[in-house]
Amino acid sequence: MEKKHIFDVISEQEKESLKAFAEDYVKFLSEAKTERESVDYFREILLRDHFEEGGKERGFFIYRNKFFACWRRGKRSIREGLRVIVSHIDTPRLDLKLHPLFEDMDLAFFKTHYYGGIKKYHWVALPLSLHGVVVKKDGSTVKIIIGERDEDPVFTICDLLPHLGRKRQEEKKLAEAIPAENLNILVGGIPLEKTSEEIGENGKQKERVKKRILKILEERYGITEEDFVSAEIFAVPAGRARFLGFDEAFIGGYGQDDRICAYTSFQAFREVTDPIHTVLVLFMDREEIGSEGNTSAKSRIFESLIYRLIKDENLSPTPDIFFEVMEKTKALSADVTAGIDPIYIEVHDKLNDAKMGYGVVISRYTGHGGKYLANEAHAEYVSFLRNIFEKEGVIYQVASMGKVDEGGGGTVSKYFASYGMDIVDIGPPLLSMHSPFEVSHIGDLYMTFKAFRAFLKS
Ligand code: MN
Ligand code: MN
């Protein structure tokens, strides 16, 4: 068996469409950095494509502004099963705490609590932007994006200078060098002017930098300090995604786990206009923290959506019809995996791990040593996928992630498998996964799109 580099196989024409596809992906990655922003992006495009919210033949559904689903009715009845692709649109980041703002030594900061699996040292000394919403007491919502336009200020978490960091940081374990409570974002440093009536009154002249920040927040966004308790504001790396390398082989940018699969499955969905089976493409939230909560894969939101699609075909969603549909459904858990990094070859199994530029990766199982907590796709299902991918010229690799004893990871696939459908993890390999600047290969990006399109057509 010989693995092939995508660029050794594809035609000149395909190289061109690959490049155009990558350019559009870079735009998406730069514009949609949170689950809410991804939902807005998808909704806007589908409305332009004349989709209807809740539409029977083709429609979309949004839950709590963080979960998105879209579907297109197939030629065959839903009783013959669906084609489902599920990815996630949440990404590791720093959430502002409920009471974030404090001042110390005339510097104002936001306290944070990280979300998902981060290496804390990645998040210091880089420009950050703030994204999210503040929902005020009267229910009105203020959308926040600060730090992405050229004229915007950015934010940062300061690190200790090496001169003074020897004991505090350099002698410690990497994970302990930067405690979570030190991930405080610098947000201001000019005190509020003293006012004449305040002079002399005890306490009123304290925390003037913080007070000035609060004044700016009130003037610019109409929000008060209390409003942070009903806000969701995330700090994420500021700036756009970029092509990377002299040959522009790669795309570097924040949040490619898993917005690369969200984007490719969404574009595949848009292209499959006349599917055989009903196609349903899902974009989940909360994957990075174990799929908890009512917008996650562990919630029963998927189930209720299937009930709706069954009812839309004038069938009644009884348990026997529901499980008949589920057993005939085929699904892809669209998520990224680790590409082999030759610099850290010791954690990889060269023969079994994925190579950058060698195509979309079917990960038959995830989990960790002993296959614990993993969904493993059946051989029959992998055979089915090989068949449709080869017919459609999809370059793919079948791989695992890392040496058995080195670690592992999970995805949403096991929650969907519990309904009885066949599901397997599939997606492009990344380098620097879960870092503020993740790296994908443009060839793998395109093959992921082609794989999803072939699957939805099947
Ligand atoms: Mn993921
Ligand atoms: Mn992840």
Can you walk through the features of this model?
- The chain has a 9-stranded mixed β-sheet with strand order 1-2-3-13-4-14-18-16-17, sandwiched between helices.
- The mean pLDDT is 95.
- The protein has 2 domains: 6-91 and 254-457, 3-Layer(aba) Sandwich (Aminopeptidase); 93-237, Aminopeptidase i, Domain 2, CATH 2.30.250.
- It has 458 residues and is of the alpha/beta class.
- The chain has helices at 6-9, 12-31, 35-48, 166-170, 174-177, 208-221, 256-271, 301-311, 319-328, 379-391, 413-417, 442-457, and strands spanning 52-53, 58-63, 67-72, 82-88, 93-104, 107-115, 128-135, 141-146, 185-188, 231-237, 242-244, 250-253, 278-284, 330-334, 337-338, 360-363, 396-398, 422-427, 429-430, 438-441.
- The longest helix is centred in the first third of the chain and has 20 residues, at 12-31.
Structure, briefly:
With 458 residues, this protein is an alpha/beta fold. The chain folds into two domains: 6-91 and 254-457, 3-Layer(aba) Sandwich (Aminopeptidase); 93-237, Aminopeptidase i, Domain 2 (Roll).
Q: What are the defining features of this structure?
A:
binds manganese (II) ion, single chain, 20 strands, 458 residues, 9-stranded mixed sheet, globular, 12 helices, alpha/beta, 29% helix
CATH architecture of the largest domain: 3-Layer(aba) Sandwich
Largest sheet: 9 strands, mixed
What class, by secondary structure content? alpha/beta
Strand content: 15-25%
Average pLDDT value? 95
Q: Cα distance, first to last residue?
A: 26 Å
Shape, principal axes of CA atoms: globular
Number of DSSP strand runs: 20
Instruction: Give the cofactors and ligands.
Output: manganese (II) ion
